[in-house]
Amino acid sequence: MPTYNKLVRDRIPEIIEKDGKSLETRILNEQEYYEEVRKKMNEELMEYEAAANDEEALEELADLLELIHAAATIHGADYDQLEAIRQRKAEKRGGFNERIFLIEVKDD
Q1: Is 65 part of a structural domain of the chain?
Q2: Sign of the torsion formed by the C-alpha atoms of 63, 87, 95 and 92
Q3: For 33-52, what is each residue's pLDDT tens digit?
């Protein structure tokens, strides 16, 4: 049986058991959960970067979004609060839609 030692989605144990396999899990404490969410974000970001097409990219973005929701909860916010922060920053500093690539700032 393979060893994974990683954070998985909530229904993964159920899915594994339906396949007739046995498994071992445990519930992480708060600090472990925080660390594992961060690790999982990095894992999913690497998978996004390696995506070969739009469909794969969108799957990985959905995974990242799920982890962003989890991280927001860790930091005491829900999706609406996080979205309000995003909107506030977009209004103040803009988004990334115009594809602006800053090369240099010259001090006078």
Answers
A1: yes
A2: negative
A3: 999 999 999 999 999 999 99
Do 9 and 44 form a contact (C-beta atoms < 8 A)? no
DSSP codes joined into one string, 17-63:
HHTT---------HHHHHHHHHHHHHHHHHHHHH--SHHHHHHHHHH
Tokens 């519930």 map to which residue?
A: 27
Domain count, the chain: 1
The separation between CA 7 and the C-alpha centre of its own chain, rounded to angstroms, equals 12
Does 79 reside within a domain? yes
Asked if residue 100 is part of any domain, the answer here is: no
Q: How far apart are CA 93 and CA 88, in angstroms?
A: 9
- Structural domain that includes position 16: 12-93
Q: pLDDT digits over 21-30, tens only?
A: 999 999 999 9
